[in-house]
Amino acid sequence: MKALEITNLIKKFGELEVLKKINLSIESWDFFALLWHNWAWKTTTIWIVTDLVYKTSWKIKIFWIDVDIEFNKAKKLIWIVPQEFNFDIFAKVIDVVITQAWYYGVPKKIALERAEKYFKKLWLWEKRDVEARQLSGWMKRRLMIVRALIHEPKLLILDEPTAGVDVELRTTMWEFIKELNQNWTTILLTTHYLEEAEALCNKIAILSKWEIIENTTMDDILTKLEEENIIFDTNDKIINLPQELIKKYKAKKIWEKNIELTILKKDKINDIFKIFDDNDIEIISLRNKSNRLEQLFIKLTK
Q1: Nearest to 174 by CA among 161, 185, 183
Q2: In this structure, what is the dihedral angle of CA atoms 35, 39, 43, 45, given to the nearest 10 degrees?
Q3: Which domains occur in the chain, in start order?
Q4: Which residues contact 203 (CB under 8 A, 6 or more apart)?
Q5: What percent of the residues of the chain are helix, what percent strand, and what percent coil, each to the nearest 5?
Q6: Which of 127, 113, 9, 122 has the alpha carbon at shortest distance from 60?
Q7: Angle between helices 93-103 and 137-149 (to 10 degrees)
Q8: Which residues contact 298 (CB under 8 A, 6 or more apart)?
Q9: CA of residue 275 relative to chain centroid, distance
Q10: How far is it, in rounded angstroms, from Cα 218 to Cα 197?
């Protein structure tokens, strides 16, 4: 079943056409990344999907429900966690969530049970009785997610869910979001952190110049990457780089014990390790210099 189906989405501001016949389909239980070259229209697109911005032309269905015909029914199946905080900062944390549940007709007893479950998963339970304004930035972001989940929507849109969150907290947030998806919540993710999209999502669409230029699986799109910059960490200081590595792989030292190579898709990693072995260079680890999806995104949207 399709969780979201967008047909011929067009958006104009006067004579300026900012979205050109966007067609997009997201299957139930997908973890879908939607990435923009021009991020200025990211929020506009999301708001159109949730009917917060007037569309010039379109057709949208959420789990086969036509939004134009049965908006209230469709609305119960979807929620967006926006990038900006938009709750009453003077309300108690628990009240922010319970009020949201009331809007969706969730009985208070069930709402309290769900609130406790999600607050504990996101380390907010002990803050439930404080005013929301007293929360740190990352706690407010987690509160936004709990509020979104209180009516347990089948389609969850996450707009920059880990913006402003440090690396350790981002990792724990990733684990929670992945668990949601594994428990049958369809997720549409927008993010500037492309490593986040690569780590979490199984499908991806990229928009450039107001049109979709890629719409495929994450595995398939990564096969388009023709070369990668790999950092090899050595056990000892490197004095001289082997000429074979320089000529074939554009090798260069980036620190005393780090070598960067440019490796093509056709290259065999075993051949590279043989050169290291022949020159008595012991490799203890290797890693990508930058995120693979980021490299590809820059190439595709030039």
Answers
A1: 161
A2: -60
A3: 2-222 (3.40.50.300), 227-300 (3.30.70)
A4: 26, 27, 30, 31, 32, 33, 216, 217, 218
A5: 40, 30, 30
A6: 9
A7: 30
A8: none
A9: 38
A10: 9
- Amino acid 164 reads G
- Answer yes or no: are the C-beta atoms of 82 and 44 closer than 8 Å: no
How far, in Å, are 15, 52, 197, 203, 269 from residue 44 at the CA level?
16, 9, 20, 21, 44
Tell me the pLDDT of the chain (302 aa) as tens digits: 899 998 888 777 777 777 777 888 999 999 999 998 765 566 777 777 776 455 666 788 899 998 888 888 988 999 999 888 999 999 999 999 999 999 999 999 999 999 999 999 999 999 999 999 999 988 999 999 999 999 999 999 999 888 877 777 888 889 999 999 999 999 999 988 898 999 999 999 998 877 889 999 999 999 888 888 899 999 999 888 999 999 999 999 988 899 999 999 889 999 999 999 999 999 999 988 877 898 888 888 87
Please, are residues 100 and 150 in contact by the beta-carbon 8 Å criterion?
A: yes
